[in-house]
Amino acid sequence: MKSVTLTARQKDLLRTLVALTQEGKLSDPIIPIPFGTPTQYAVYLRGAESFRFKHLSDLDALCDAGLLRFRWNRQGTGKLYTITQAGFTAVSTNFSLPPSPLGYDINLAELLQIMSGDRFPLNRLPEETELAALAHDPIARHTCIEVMCDELLRLVRPLLNWEAFAIYEKQTQILRSILLQARPDEERLKTAVRVLGFLEQTDIPLPDLIQVWAILYPLMLLGVARSQQNKLTTNNGKRMRE
Question: 20 to 30 A from 52, CA-CA: which of 45, 133, 181, 217?
Fold first, then answer.
């Protein structure tokens, strides 16, 4: 969850949207329809009267906080909203989200932009790229991993011959599978990154090596964050049972 202060009205709006979703009355995506003067908004509900609210900006504030995300409709004239896993977690914990698994939060998109010198295709990443939120959101996390691994292969392809690239591609698939596990194995992660980072090779030009590590480092952070998050969840569960 980003460091954004929400109003009581915005929190109540998210609580309502989550409750309606869990009751099966509200389907994804959430489509606000304007009506009346002054303008208000209605959201269609299954088997019940439409839910009405006044401030569309509240949905955007929830997006800024990482609790909703949006995409444009086909015509590009309106936003379609989705509750993120962080949004469900925020409501279930009364907006007391757990801290980042690493003890501090990082925005992977900003990190990739800085480390790559603005060369990484940020438009392919999901809306939410805060590390803490990605640790809780399987869909956004999967997208980040896929995009970063694809970009890694694109960068490395011109650096290796066909046989060496085939080996590298296989190692990238191994890294991807490790990161997509419920609890990434940190030892296997270190082994995969050692190979993919050319730590045992000296013939890779330094500028290219920097671009490779601009992607590998965020991938490692994502894997460690997910591993640490699972440890926190396990420990919290043990304390609750005790």
Answer: 133
Q: Which helix (H) or strand (E) holds 35?
A: strand 33-35
Q: Could you tell me which residues come within 8 angstroms of residue 103 by beta carbon, excluding any fewer than 6 positions away?
A: none
Q: Which residue has the tokens 């303008």?
A: 39
Antiparallel, parallel or unpaired: β 79-83 and 33-35: unpaired
Asked if residues 215 and 116 have their Cβ atoms less than 8 Å apart, the reply is yes
Query: How does DSSP classify residue 97?
Result: P
Sorted by sequence, the CB contacts under 8 Å of residue 153 that are 6+ apart come out as 168, 169, 172
- Which pTM value belongs to this model? 0.57
Query: Tokens 């919290």, residue?
Result: 236
If you ran DSSP here, which 8-state letter would residue 40 be given?
Answer: E
In degrees, rounded to 5, the angle at the alpha carbon of residue 200 between the alpha carbons of residues 199 and 203 is: 95
Cis peptide before 38 (omega within 30 of 0): yes
Could you write out the three-class secondary structure of 26-55? CCCCECCEEECCCCEEEECCCCCCCEEECC
Reading the chain (242 residues) residue by residue, the pLDDT tens digits are 444 567 888 999 999 999 999 999 998 889 999 988 888 999 999 888 899 998 888 998 888 878 888 888 888 888 999 998 778 888 888 877 555 555 556 788 889 999 999 999 999 998 778 887 777 778 888 999 999 999 999 999 999 999 999 999 999 999 999 998 878 888 899 999 999 999 887 789 999 999 999 999 999 988 887 777 655 444 444 443 44
How many other CB atoms are there within 10 angstroms of residue 90's CB atom?
Answer: 25
Per residue in 206-220, is it b (16+ CB within 10 Å) or e — as a string?
A: eeebebbbbbbebbb
Are the C-beta atoms of 131 and 225 separated by less than 8 Å? yes
